[in-house]
Amino acid sequence: MSDEIRLSPTSGCDGCPVHNAGRLSRLGVNMENWDYVVALAGNPNTGKSTVFNALTGLKQHTGNWPGKTVTRAEGGFEYGDTRFKLVDLPGTYSLLSASPDEEIARDFILFGNPDVTVVVVDSTRLERNLNLVLQVLEITSRVVVCLNLVDEARRHHLTVDERRLARDLGVPVVPTSARYRQGLPELLAAINDVASGKTVYKPHRIGGASPEVERAVNGLARKVEAAFPNLTNARWVALRLLDGDSTIAQAVRQGELGELEGGTQYAAAGAALGEATI
Amino acid sequence: MSATAINQTAIEDILRSAEALRWDLGRDYHDRIVEAVYADAARIADRAVSRQGDKSRFDLDATIDRLVTSRAWGFPIMLLLLMLVFWITITGANIPSDWIASILIGRVYPALKQGAESLLIPGWISGSLIDGMYLSTAWVVSVMLPPMAIFFPLFTLLEDFGYLPRVAFNLDNAFKKAGAHGRQSLTMMMGFGCNAAGVVATRIIDSPRERLIAIITNNFALCNGRWPTQILIASVFLGTLVSAQLAGLISAASVVMVALLGIGLTFFTSWGLSRTLLKGQPSTFSLELPPYRPPRVLQTLYTSIIDRTMYILWRALVFAAPAGLVIWIIANLHIAGQSLAELVVHFLDPVGLLIGLNGVILLAYVVAIPANEIVIPTILMLTVLMTGVTGVGQGAGVIFQLDSQQALQSLLTAGGWTLLTAINLMLFSLIHNPCSTTIYTIYKETGSLKWTAVATLMPLILGFSVTFVIAQVWHLLAVVL
What phi and psi values does residue B324 have, to the nearest 5 degrees? Predict the structure, then answer.
C-alpha cells in the first residue's frame, strides 16, 4: 500500500488538482468506511483486473485470456478525502441472458446499486463492447466508460474519438492504457465526479424499437416507479419483466426491490450474492 | 400494515400488466430489444472509430494465429515451446544451483557444525536441527529456487503474450470428443498454475455435468507445487543417464512427457466419466482468442519471482519446518526398540516396493497432504534420518564438495533409490490425491461429499495402479533381460 505511486498524467496539466497523482492512495483489502461503491464491469479480457489492481494496489492475478475473473473481487482506494470500495465483476458480453457470471454482474449492478459503474471497454472491439455499455446504461446512468487498450488500438491504426463517444453515450469516456498506467488519473477524476454528482449526465437510451414497445415499457415503468419509489432503474425492471425474466419477477413479487433502500442496499445485495464469493 | 397491503396490490398489478403486455408484444420482443441494442452500438461505434492506413496490410496477429492453431503445426509448436521452456529451466538452473549449494552446504553448514561443537550443544539437538532441518532446507533452496525462478517467469510470459488460450483452442476439440466442455481446456490451463484455482475457474462452465468432469480431472494438470518435484527428479536421475551435453534435453523431454501424460489422463478420465458416472452430450460454446499483447517483461519477472517463486518456496519451507519437527519426533519416539518412523516406514515398505516406490516416499506423501511442495523436503529429511543422520553429517566435507545434484543423487541412492523409483515418483507425483486446499475447494464448489471423495480417491487409485503395473513390468523385464 505504501508503494511508490507511479501514475503519470498523460497531458501536461501537472498543476491541475485533477492530475495530482498524490491524491490516490491504494488501500488494498482495507475497505472499511467507504463513501462510495464502484463496480467494474466489461467484456471478458478487456483489462478489468488490471484496472482493479492499478487502483487498489492488490495483485488479483491478471491473465491474457477471457474468463480470468469468475467471482467478484473487492478492494479499496482513497481519492482525495473520499474512500471508495471497488468491486471487480466477472466479464460478460451482455446482461440479457442467464449464465451464472452474467447474473452475478447484472445482480450487482441492479441490486447492489453501486454509486458508479465503470464499464471497461476494448478500444479495438468497440462495437461489440458498446452492446454491454448500452445495456448497463439502461440499468444505471451513473456510468464512466473506461476506453481501455488505446495503445493496442493505435497499434492497429485505429483512432477512437472519445469526445464524440462521450456525447453519444451521454456519460464520461476516459481513454486509458491500464497496463502502462496511462489515463488512470483522469479515470479517478471522472469516477469521483460521477460519484459526488458533479458530472451532469444524460445517458443514451436504446431507441429504434417500435413505438408500441416504447409505450409498453414506459407504461409499466411508471407502475414500477409508483410501487417502488426508491428504485433508480424502473425502466430496466420494466424491460426485463416484459422479457419474462423470472429472477426479476421473483424480486418484484417478494418486494425485494422495495427493501433495497438507502444504506442497506449494498448489504442486502451482498447477502443475496453470498454464494458467489469465494 | 396497510402500506404493505397497498404495495402488495400494486405488485400484483405490475406483474399482471407485464404478463398482458407480453402477449400483446409477441414473441419477438426479446429479439427486437437485442436488435435495437446492436443497431445503436454499431451506429455509435461507427461514428467514433476511424481507421487509418492500408486495410489490406500484413496482419501479424492473424498470421501467427494461423500457424499456432493450424492442424498440422499446432501440436508440434506446442511441444517445441514446452521443450524449450523446460530445457532453458533445467540447463539454466545448474549453475545457480551449484553456486547456492556451495555457499549453503559447502560453507555455512561446516561453520554451523563447528559452532555447535564449540558451544558444546548436545549431539541430538545439533543433529536434528543442523543435519536434519538445516541441511534439507538448504537443499530445498539450492535445488528448488533456481528452476522455479526460471520456469515461472517463462511460463507467465507465455500466458501474458496470449499463447495459452491458443493451446486451449487446440485442445478444445479433443475435450468435446471426450464428452466434456471445450472450456475445460481453459480451466486445465489454470490448473497448471494451481489446482484449487483451476477448480474455482470451472465456474465458467454452465452445465453441472461438464463442470463436475472439469473439477474431478483438474488434478491431472501439474500444479506449481509439483513442477519443482518433476524438474528435480528428472534432472537428478534421468538427466544423469546420458552425457552432459544431452542431460538437459533428456530431463526436459521427460518433464514434458509427464505433463503430456497428465493432459492425456485428463482426456481419458473425462471420456470415462462422461460415459459412466456423468453421461450426457457436450454443450457448444465459442472461445474468443484474445489479441497477442507484448508481454511486460520486467513486471512479469517481478510478479512471477516474488508472487510465485518466493511464495512456493516460502510455503515449502513453512510447511517443511513443522513437518521436520513431526519427522524428528517420530524418528526419536521409540516403541519396542524401533523408532516410530522406522515402524511406519517398514510397515509401508512392502506396499511401496510393490509399486516401485518405498515406505519413505509413501510416508512423505501422507505428511505432504497439506502441500505438494514439501514432498521433496520430507523425503530428504526422512531419508537422512533412515540412512543414519550421522553418516551424512560426519562425512559431509567430502560429499558436499560435489555439486548439489550429485550429492542429492548419492544420498537418495543410499536410501535405496533406483531409476524405477525416480520414474514412479514422477508418475505418482502426477497421479495422486489433490492437496488438502484443493480437496476443500472441491467440497466447497460441489457441496457434495460424494463428488469430493470421487475427485480425491479416483486419482489415488489410478496412481497406485499405474505405478504398480510399471513396477511389475520393470521387474519382469529385469528378470528376462
Answer: -60, -40
Domains and CATH numbers, chain A: 5-196 (3.40.50.300), 211-277 (no CATH)
- The structure's pTM equals 0.63
Question: CA B432 to CA B456: how far, in whole Å?
Answer: 8
- Find the closest chain A residue to B163 by CA distance: A64
pLDDT in tens, B18-55: 888 887 777 777 777 888 888 888 888 888 888 776 55
CB contact under 8 A, A126 and B204: no
Do β-strands A82-88 and B338-339 pair in parallel, antiparallel, or remain unpaired? Answer: unpaired
Residue A155 has pLDDT above 80, yes or no: yes
Interface of A with B in 209-268 (CB under 8 A): 209-210, 212-213, 216, 219-220, 223-224, 226-227, 238-239, 241-244, 249, 252-253, 255, 258
Q: Which residues, other chains included, contact A151 with Cβ-Cβ below 8 Å and sequence gap of 6+?
A: A177, A179, A180, A182
Give pLDDT tens digits for A102-152: 777 888 887 777 899 999 999 988 988 999 999 898 888 889 999 999 988
Question: Is A149 within 8 Å of A122 (Cβ atoms)?
Answer: yes
Scanning A57-183, the segments in alpha helix (DSSP H) are: 100-111, 126-139, 150-155, 162-169
- The pLDDT value recorded for residue A65 is 52
The pLDDT-based confidence of B388 (bands split at 50, 70, 90) is: low
Query: Using CA atoms, how far apart are residues B206 and B386, in angstroms rounded to an integer?
Result: 51
- Give the DSSP letter string of B200-254: HHGGG---HHHHHHHHHHGGGSPPTTTHHHHHHHIIIIIGGGS-HHHHHHHHHHH
Neighbours of B335 (CB within 10 A): 9
Residues 6+ apart with CB under 8 A from B414: B383, B387, B391
Those residues whose C-beta lies under 8 Å from the C-beta of residue A245, and which sit 6 or more positions away, are none
CA distance A224 to A141: 18
**Residue A266: its pLDDT value, please?**
40
- A248-272 burial, b at 16+ Cβ within 10 Å, e below that, comes to bbebbeeebbbebeeeebbebbbeb
DSSP secondary structure, B58-113, as one string: --HHHHHHHHHT-TTTHHHHHHHHHHHHHHHHHHHHHHHHHHHHIIIIIIIHHHHH
3-state SS class at B415: coil
Nearest to B37 among A101, A206, A216 (CB): A206
Which of B37, B205, B444 would best serve as a mutation to test chain A binding (most A beta carbons within 10 A)?
B37
Residue B94: CB atoms within 10 A of its CB come to 19
Residue B314 in grid coordinates: 516460502
